[in-house]
Write a structure and sequence with these properties.
By secondary structure, this protein is α+β, with helices and mostly antiparallel strands. It contains 5 helices and 12 strands. The radius of gyration is 17 Å and the shape is globular.
């Protein structure tokens, strides 16, 4: 697993887990939380399902708890994005996507229209992913950025609640986005989606 930086709650990488739905949660033999004070803290396998987790780079990662500013920002993002979507594209909220060694659940993803009854959308189905970042800012800027760039997802948006701005990542090469722009609260955000540019006011996305 890559070095992630920041305070990331991650399981001990005892074995690799395969992408393929939440079946891998039931097969987990050990789950641990890493904290600055205690180091690795084992959690009984019977309690694995009590955690809200994602599969990132072959390891289970405990997601941060959501709070009212996070959820209200996500609701604003949905409200503003939905009417602007080009024909043939859909907006998914906090639903899994299937990448090579990861099955993250971005706060929002713009994907090709489809039922996805038997499989999650893959990188070829995705025009943009977005994360609402407050307590998760460190992992969203580091590990999530690497994962989404590696998968070739064209656009990655961070709505940065902590610093009241938006960060736009484009042109992935390897595990890096080669174009990164920061938009202040008073700025208009040009979000490229499937050959179109959707314009969002950053202040309309942020909590009051």
């Amino acid at each position: 697993m890559r070095k992630t930086g920041g305070n990331v709650n991650c399981v001990t990488p005892i074995r690799s887990y395969a992408v393929g739905g939440f079946g891998w949660v039931g097969r987990a033999s050990s789950l641990s939380d890493r904290t600055p004070k205690t180091g690795w803290k084992p959690v009984p396998p019977s309690q694995v399902r009590n955690y809200y987790i994602e599969l990132l780079e072959g390891c289970l990662v405990k997601k941060t708890s959501r709070n009212p500013p996070h959820d209200s920002t996500l609701q604003r993002l949905f409200r503003k994005l939905w009417p602007l979507l080009p024909d043939g594209w859909d907006l998914r909220i906090r639903m899994a996507i299937a990448l090579d060694r990861s099955e993250p659940e971005p706060d929002a993803a713009i994907v090709r229209e489809g039922d996805y009854d038997t499989a999650h959308p893959t990188s070829t189905d995705i025009a943009c992913v977005a994360e609402v970042s407050d307590s998760s800012l460190s992992i969203d800027r580091s590990l999530k950025t690497q994962i989404y760039a590696d998968a070739g997802i064209p656009v990655y948006l961070i709505v940065n609640v902590c610093e009241r701005c938006a960060e736009l990542y484009e042109l992935p090469v390897g595990s890096v986005y080669t174009r990164i722009a920061r938009f202040a609260e008073a700025d208009a955000l040009p979000l490229p989606v499937a050959g179109r540019v959707l314009t969002l006011a950053v202040e309309d996305l942020l909590p009051r």
